[in-house]
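seq as requested:
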Amino acid sequence: MASTGAAGLGRALRKLRGTSVAFRLVAVVRPDTAPRLGEVVRTLLDLQPAQATLTPDFRAPWTEESVAGLRTGLHDAGKVWMEAFRGGRALPLEPLRGKILTHLKEGIPCPERCTLAGRAFAVAPTGRLYPCAQMIGEDDDGDLVIGTLDSGFDEKRLAELQKAKDRVEETCAPCALRERCQSHCGCRHVALTGELGRINQALCEIEESFILAADEVARVLIAERCPAFLETYYCKQYRPAAGSVLTRLRRPGEPRPG
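struct tokens:
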């Protein structure tokens, strides 16, 4: 980002903070920027968001060398995040925060797993409907279309796409990290391989890198008995919203609900 652009962003965010408007920041992680994630996270922390997210660019050419750079960058990012906890600031830094929760909850809760068009869908300028905004692309291919504004949802097509996406469950079933991994995300399948239900080694390596980095942060801060960390992950009681119930985690080998 150019210095003038960064200065303008800083002014805008200061105005938001001045009006008590919470905001989130997303940093897209590419192979060339991955080794500098410590610097990136420090910048994000300085901007004081309510939440920050590191999002890998799954369309980028990830190699063994670039994944090694990602591991280095996440190690440095973890150290910066730990500094924040030690200073009493518990900024939600995703997906590291989420990876710690998957350890405590023994997996990713069913409602948070990718179900195509389960809680949201996307509308292209042409009026065609897609299961997710990231699947629209140039809107020149009908393979992922699930209907139109005029005709409504094509439930049969949506079921076919969901079935194709769920093939990854068999591929990943033997993996020890399965219940903490987001290989169920259909957008990632399409970005990496162009096909729902098919993943490659890059996704496995990237997901493992985030899990290992999160676990290292947790290991160190638990050993230190860091007050802010323990308060964030071990001293809060989570209750369902009014009129709802907590959903039990789906265990390995169990069928999907419904």
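The chain is about 45% helix and 10% strand.
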